Each structure stands twice: as C-alpha cells, then as structure tokens.
Amino acid sequence: MLDKVGIAKRIAKELQDGYFVNLGIGIPTLVANYVPEGMNVDFQSENGVLGMGPFPYEGEEDADLINAGKQTITTLAGASFFDSSTSFGMIRGKHVDLTILGAMEVSEKGDIANWKIPGKMVKGMGGAMDLVASAENIIVAMMHVNKAGESKILKECSLPLTGVGCVKKIVTELAVMEVTPNGMKLLERAPGVSVEDIIKATEVTLIIEGDIPEMNID
Questions:
Q1: Which of 14, 37, 46, 188 is catalytic?
Q2: Does 210 fall in a domain?
Q3: Closest to 28 (Cα-Cα) out of 128, 111, 123, 95
Q4: Taking the alpha carbons of 100, 131, 63, 121 in that order, is the dihedral positive or negative?
Q5: pLDDT bucket at 127, cuts 50 / 70 / 90
Q6: At residue 181, does pLDDT exceed 70?
Q7: What's the pLDDT band for 125 if we cut at 50, 70, 90?
Q8: Distances (CA, A) of 49 to 42, 126, 137
Q9: Which Pfam families match (predicted)?
C-alpha cells in the first residue's frame, strides 16, 4: 500500500519531456518533487505561475511565491508570472498537456467530484471546472476509500460534479486504474496489495485482464 508520497511518485512516471502540467491542491502538488532526472516539465498554477519547482526546504520559504493552494513554492530558471486571466487563457486554450487533480469521488464513467460537500462551507470552486472542461489528459490522485472504509470509486458520484466523463486515469494507495469505454480497468496494484484487496475496496466491477503487475515507484 502506498502513502501520499508513493502516489505522487507513481504519477510522476506519467510525465513526459516538454509537458506543461497543472497540479491541483493536495497530493498532486507533491508530483513536482519527483520529476524524473533529465526531464524538462513546466508546472503551471492558476494564480499565474509557469515554471514551478519542488517545494522549498524549511526555512527557505518565500511568502511571495505561492501556488493556487496558497502553499509556498520554488521556481525554476525561466519561470514567468502573469495575471489569472492569462493563466486561465492557457487552460481554456488547451495549452496544458496534463492535469493532475485530487478528488473526493470518481465514477466508473470518469465523472469527478472534487469541489464541494453539501452542508460544508467552501471558499470557492477554484479552477478545477475550467481544467476538467479543457484538459485532454486528466489523472486523479486520491485515496481509494474514505475514513469509514467506503469506496470512493463509485458507479455514480453522490457529490456535486466538477466534470463529466473527463478522468482518464486514477492512482490511489491501492491501484492504478484507467477509465475505458467499457468501464474501469485495473492496470497495476500497489506493493503488498492483492487484486482481491482492490476488488473489495472498489464499488464498481473492475475489468481485470491477465496478471496485474505491481507498480514501480522507484
């Protein structure tokens, strides 16, 4: 079973040289710390940053450098800063190659709910709705089950939707899954996790073909 860092390390293997990538708040922000050596990836944030680096070491934070989740960040050589309208122009213009988001629920059809729980106050929906409406490649980083042990991979989302049929792949502490026209397909299992463990933790019926390899996060 993976921790949050392990999930981020596995998603980092989906990066490709030259990609422009948007990272949602939560687990996705950790991906910037694990870019494969020698690979050039530009991370973009809705508040107007292109060229984010890994998180700063303790004591080296600059309060003027933050991402959309108000976390302090570092920037790489050549980074640029701009207003939010330009930032969302990049997103809506489909100039982001990969979007990595957190989620509270994902359906077997690729619907995502990640912005509101009814009855709880939220500061706003952020940029997620623009991202899911515009991005061609969306990977979700999330925990497989909630605090009650109930699956967050559902036949139908119960929470207000952020986007419909937009998620391509999901990485959890248990597994890597792909949304296909025929349903949710199990691609990989986390170290020490069996296929049976994943089936028990998942509400939807998974497509399982052949032996499911253990994911590599090294």
A1: 46
A2: no
A3: 128
A4: negative
A5: confident
A6: yes
A7: low
A8: 10, 15, 20
A9: CoA_trans
As for how many domains the chain has, the answer is: 1
Higher pLDDT, 195 or 134: 195
pLDDT surpassing 80 at residue 34: yes
Residue that the structure tokens 């025929």 belong to: 182
Residue 92 lies in a domain: yes
Six-digit token string for 47: 């508040």
CATH number of the domain where residue 130 is located? 3.40.1080.10
- Please give the structure tokens belonging to residue 16: 């490709």
Give the DSSP letter string of the chain.
---HHHHHHHHHTT--TT-EEEE-SSGGGGGGGGPPTT---EEEETTTEEEE-SPPPTT---TT-B-TTS-B--EEEEEEE--HHHHHHHHHTT--SEEEEE-SEEETTS-EE-S--TTS--S--TTHHHHHHH-S-EEEE--SB-TTS-BSEESS--SPPSBSS---EEE-SSEEEEEETTEEEEEEE-TT--HHHHHHT-SSPPB--SPPPBP---
- Per the domain annotation, does 216 fall within a domain? no
Residue 121 has pLDDT above 60, yes or no: no
Which residue range(s) make up the domain with 94? 4-201
Q: Is residue 206 part of a domain?
A: no
Residue 130: closest CA among 47, 40, 42: 47
Predicted TM-score (pTM) of this structure:
0.91
